[in-house]
Amino acid sequence: MRIKSKLGLILVCFLAFQTLIMTESKAGNILQQGAHEEFTITDYRDTYTLTKWIGWPWLITSANIDAGCLWIMTYNIDQKNVTEMPCRIVSATGIRLAGEDSVELFTAKLHGTYWAGGEGGGTSTYSITATFLETLAVTNAEQIVPLNGTAVFTLYNFGSRRCGSYWRIPPSATWLPSHPSFFPPTNVAGEFWIEAAPHSDGGDAISIPEADTAKLMVVEVASLLATYGTAPNATTASSTTNDPKISETLIIPKGKSATIVATPNPDVWPTYMAGDPPTAHSYPTWSVTGSSTPATILTSLNGPSTSIKSTVGSGTYKIVASCGTSTKAINITVIQIAHNNTDVTDASGTSKTMIIGEPNNLVVSGATFSSVSWTIPGSHIKSWTVHPTTTLQIRLDLTTTDLSTASLPTYYWYKSGTDLTPSVTVTIGSEDDGFKSATIKTKPFTVIKPNISVSTTTGTIGLDQARIYYGDRYAIPGIKLSHPLLSSPTLGITMWIQLYTGLRRRQIDATHWERSTGPGLDPGPAGYWYDTDRNTADSPFVALPASYLKAIVSDSFKMYLMYKPLGGIYVPLKVTSWGWNGTATKSGTIWSLSGDTKEPTSTSDASDYPNWTKVMNPAQWTPE
C-alpha cells in the first residue's frame, strides 16, 4: 500500500470529467427518469469537474456532491451562471489541495433531481459517480547497471497512457522534471530507491517501500581473489586496487591454473548484451594489461570469475576486472623451471628419466627474484675429477651459493632413485613493497643405472723363497673381476679403481721392523685407474728379501666399478671388497707359510665415490 498522509500529499494534474453532452434531441434519450452514470478516472490533474447537463424544457431541481475534499458547486441556466435552482447545468469542481493525492477527492458522487417539463412531465433522480483508479507505475522499475552506465526509468499511467513526470532520489527532497523518462546519475556505486510523481510538488508519488518503487543498483568491482590449489593447501592473494603490488600477487607454477573471482558492490552483477545474435553476458569483463589477445590467457572474458590458462608462459600477468568505469586488478606470476632447456615445472604425467652421471641443468624464470633457494634430493655431485699430477681425487658438491642462484650449476646424480623431485623457493619483492615467496617443484625424476653385475673368482695363497703371494697373474690370479657388456639405454664406458686399506709388515732383524699401510689408491700401470677393460684381475704379493726374518700380510681392497654415460661423468656403480692374510717366517734360509686365509669376497652397489688421500707405492716401506 502507498504510505501517504491525507493532508500532506499534493496532486498536480487536470481531468475534465462530465456526462456525455449531446444535442437536445438526443439528450432526452439518455436523460430519462432514474438514469445514473458511473465513471472511472485514471488521469492525474489538479482539478476535476463533474457536470450534469439537461436540455430544454427539463430543469434540474436539486444537486448535491458527496466527496472527500473540497468541491465547489456551480449552476448554469441558458449558458448563464446562476446560484440557485432550477437550472439546466450543474457542475461540481474538485480541487486537489497541496499535500493531498487525487485519490483523496474520490469516490465523488453528484446527484439530485430534475423535472421533465411539458405534458406528462414529472420529477426524476440523476447521479454521476466517479471513482479514481490508481494506475501509475514505473517501467523497468528495478535496474542494475555498471558504474557510470546508463539507467532509464519512465513514469507511465496505464490508465490514460499520458502523464508528466518528476523524480527524486532520497534523501534529496527536490523533485526534478524529466519527461517522459529519467536518467539518474550512476557515478556512485550503491543501492538507490527512486521516487516518481506526476506533479512538481510530489503529489501522487510512487514512494518507498512500495513494490513498484523504482530501484537502482550501481555496481562496481569491490575486490578480486585469486586462488591456486585446493583447500586446505590452497594459496591465495586478494586485491582492492587498480595498481597491484607484491601483496596483490599470486605466484603459481607454469602448467597450472589459478582462479580469479570478482566480488561486486552491491552484491549483484549487472548484465549486458553482446554477440551475434546478441545474448546476455554478466559483468565484470576481464582483460590482461598489455595483451591484445586476452582469450589466449584467460578461460573467460566475462562473468564473476575467470581462470588463467595452464598453457601460458612464464612471467607476470596483470588481470583486470571491469564493471563500467570501475576496475580492480591482481597480478599472477607464473614461474617456470627448465631442465636441460625443457620445461619440467610441476607438471602432471609421467616422470622424467635420467641416467646416473648425466648432466642436469636447472633454471628458474618468470620474475626478478630477490632470493632463490634450491633443494635437490638424492645423491648428487657437482663434479669429480682426478688431479693429473698428484693423482688425488677432486670432488666438488653444490654449495650454498650454488643453491642460491636462479641458474643452478650443472649437477649429476650418482645413485639411482625414483620420485626425485627438485624444488626451488623463490622470493619476489623489495624492502619497500614487501616480499612474497612460493615453492615450485619440478616433475618427479626417475634416475636409472646400468643393470649389470660383477662376477669374481679367486686363486690361492702361496709362498716361494722370494715372496708371499695371493694368486699368479700369469696363471690363476688372486682375484678376477668382470662385468657384462653395457646395453641400451645405459650405454657408456667403465673403468676400475682400487683402494688399499690393509697393513703389511716386514722384520728386518731381531729389533727392527718396517711397514706399508693404507688407505690409499692402488693405481694401475697407465694412471689412477686400475683398468679400463671390463675384465680385470689382481695378484698381490710381498717380496721377501733374503736378509729379512719375517713378513706379515693383512691386505684389504675395495675395487670400484666406475660408469660414465654418454656425455656424462664417471660415477661409482659397484664396489667389491676382498683381501687375504698370511705370514712368512724364515728359519735358517728357508721360508715357511702360516695363517694364510682369504677374506670373504662381496660385491654391492657403491654408496659413494672412492676417496683417497695418498697413492700407494709397493716399493715404499716406512720404518716402525
User: Structural class of the secondary structure composition?
Assistant: mainly beta
Q: What's the helical proportion of residues?
A: under 10%
Oligomer kind: single chain
> How would a textbook summarize the main sheet?
8 strands, mixed
The proportion of strand residues reads over 45%
Question: What is the rounded Rg?
Answer: 54 Å
Q: Report the average pLDDT across residues.
A: 87
Tally of contiguous helical segments? 1
Shape estimate: rod-shaped
Termini separation comes to 120 Å
Number of domains: 5
Q: Which residues sit in consecutive blocks of at least 5 with pLDDT less than 50?
A: 1-34
Work out the number of β strands: 53
Q: What this model shows, in words?
A:
The protein is an all-beta fold and 624 residues long. It folds into 5 domains: 14-132; 139-219, Immunoglobulin-like, CATH 2.60.40; 228-262 and 286-332; 340-448, Sandwich (Immunoglobulin-like); 455-623, no CATH class. Helix content is 1%, strand content 50%. It contains 1 helix and 53 strands. The strands form 13 sheets. Strands 11, 13, 14, 16, 17, 18, 20 and 24 form an 8-stranded mixed β-sheet that branches. Strands 44, 45, 46, 47, 50, 51, 52 and 53 form an 8-stranded antiparallel β-sheet that branches. Strands 19, 23, 25, 26, 27 and 30 form a 6-stranded mixed β-sheet that branches. The longest helix has 7 residues, at 24-30. It is rod-shaped and about 190 Å long. It starts with 13 loop residues before the first strand and ends with a strand. The model is unreliable at 1-34 (pLDDT under 50).
